[in-house]
Amino acid sequence: MVDLSKHKLELTYPCSWKYKIVMLESINVKNISKDIFSGREHDVKESNVSKKGKFKSYTIELIVHNDDDRNELHRLLGAHKDIKMVL
Fold first, then answer.
1. CATH says 11-86 is which class?
2. Closest CA to 56 of 81, 19, 28
């Protein structure tokens, strides 16, 4: 098995990046989108619905400008009260 912690992700910025989020089905993803990506062009697509319909996943794609930008967006998504998981 490869230990990924020993490898640094090498990207050429700016680049397109996708985040996958999982949240309760009852939450409007547009509110989260406004909270975190206000003023930034981004695309949100529904990805999947859980077997019992309680959760939905979405793919969010946008341009990130550097490692700090990419990591900060991941942190903001993970800290949002309505998001259960970020991939």
1. alpha beta
2. 28
